[in-house]
Amino acid sequence: MLNIYDVSKQAGVSIATVSRVLNNSPHVSAKTKKLVMDVIAASGYVPNAFARGLGLRTMKTIGLLCPDASDPYLSSALSALEKAFRDNLYDCLLVCTGRQPSERDAGILSLSAHHVDGMVLMGSSFVSDVAVENAMILETADIPMAILNASLQAEHIYSARCDDFGATRDALLSLTQKGYSRPLYLYHALNYSGQQKFQGFHEGCHIAGIPESHVTTLLIPRENMTVAEVQRRVFALWQEGKRFDCVVTSDDILAVGALKTAGSMHLKVPGDLAIIGYNNSSICQCTSPELSSVDNRLEMLCQQIVNTMIGILQGQEMPREVVYSGKVIERGSSIAK
Amino acid sequence: MLNIYDVSKQAGVSIATVSRVLNNSPHVSAKTKKLVMDVIAASGYVPNAFARGLGLRTMKTIGLLCPDASDPYLSSALSALEKAFRDNLYDCLLVCTGRQPSERDAGILSLSAHHVDGMVLMGSSFVSDVAVENAMILETADIPMAILNASLQAEHIYSARCDDFGATRDALLSLTQKGYSRPLYLYHALNYSGQQKFQGFHEGCHIAGIPESHVTTLLIPRENMTVAEVQRRVFALWQEGKRFDCVVTSDDILAVGALKTAGSMHLKVPGDLAIIGYNNSSICQCTSPELSSVDNRLEMLCQQIVNTMIGILQGQEMPREVVYSGKVIERGSSIAK
DNA sequence: GGAGAAAATGTAAGCGGTTACAAATCCATT
DNA sequence: AATGGATTTGTAACCGCTTACATTTTCTCC
What we know:
By secondary structure, the first copy, chain A, is α/β, with parallel strands linked by helices. The first copy, chain A, is 43% helix and 17% strand. Chain A has twelve helices and twelve strands.
């Protein structure tokens, strides 16, 4: 493998000059620059990234901590983040951690060891309700961090998130405005955004003036969140005598499960039962009727995360937290009664 | 930031000894080892990865070239690959390239510049029919490469793939054995695996003795492969007078589109129309009836890719190409007439 | 206790770049 | 042609680690 000496020798200049050309420093004459670039092109020389990293103390790499890359929602985020970082000439190191705090911490450690310039924590799974305990671990790594879809108070931690509270409230209200009056809320976690959604749902019920007795909620833990299992549990609820005419959920999978249960409950969707999912993922178009869902602006959030991170790395001051509004996307599953 | 000198000073040993402990060389006494490890733990020292990379000429990093991380199939692969590489103490650099050869090549360049130890090309999109032209570019980077789901003849290029030919043939035959006799084949690309599937489909028709006139094929290019668009095109086919009673596809999305078109064509699924998708992705359980699909053993393939790569990096001899059989997973959409 | 081999440790030369600082060159003015 | 400032180039120190080789220590056995 060629190194910078080889190039400098071939070009008849010093290594400093070659280095300057490589980093296009202004202190090189146009003539020399062209000469060196020609030699580089001809020889096929590629600078050694490790040596470069040693000297510059960065390899322009961002760590992406993803609890589950196979999750459709997170994988979209992954794609968006990677693309945006690449546009800014940063490479992305991917670590799929799982959702356990210990796994998350191991991931953070691994990324620190790799000397990334910054880290993105994807998803609020990383921030449980025990925010304080969590923050400490995150703070120890003195690297800028950005969290997608959760918020955390700490010095070098930034975040971009959707107003899940407002979006879930609006989803519920869009149903009550159409005459639905006995909501069921299906949710899978109470991490940061899970809490927001949960509270937003109840806020909506409150605004719509729905009596407590007409409100049902059902937790289906993430590890049980398969279409079949959701069907089973929703149907069980129905058999217990619980009644509902509309469903708001914290995830599209839950909504698909509810939709597929409708038949067993002898309910027509929409009409007897209206359903709204969350995330507006591609499966919304796979069902019949198609699934209404909350678009939580993933693309924008990712773009924002990248902008923030790049800004920080350039030494600019950046807002600690950015919040976008979600949007209810109406499809067949939630049209009027 | 602490460096190895600080640690050596604090421990009262030379930096060589610290380095030996770090790389757990056998040439350190147990006593010294413990002493140094204690100092490291107490000080919170983390070795500089760039310096380490410079000396060792590797940072134990694998490049993952993914045409589209938001694709459910590829994101599952991503997750599986990352996990398996991590288990072998390799970090993964993710590059989402898109499917254009030029994008692919830019990705390869970017990964080369980062000095990864090996690269995985995810998916046969990277290998078009112009195999020779492609191979040349791949060969220039003198880094071990592994290709998922495609095959390519070249010195340092390895591959693990599913027998897509056989799997598609079997899918078709499973339908004809149930009495279906007028197959429609929906496909989205003719890259490496696309060709295999296409030929497998025709092979199946041949074996089943289906006359040419009863066979329909329809290409729906990947960029148009949305449920709505597939519906539109399949229905258009029907209106043109083409008739079919079963559908084999190269991707689950196509199958979902076909399934959702059945209503418009006044066909009952199954019975009037049977459908089998490809990839056995999670959307198969979102539809009613649920979608039969070909499981192409993604987990195994990924595991194999990682094993091969690790083996190569350890200097072992590894098989150039490994092929697994696919499996038709029967669900509601393809039971007997 | 001392010779010799084995084990542990230290010294110093890389690895391949960046960059502060020094030196050389260039150019316009006088 | 000499002067002096600006521009270009070179020299060498450094980034933090690995490792070949040299040196020291430890151990074994007579």
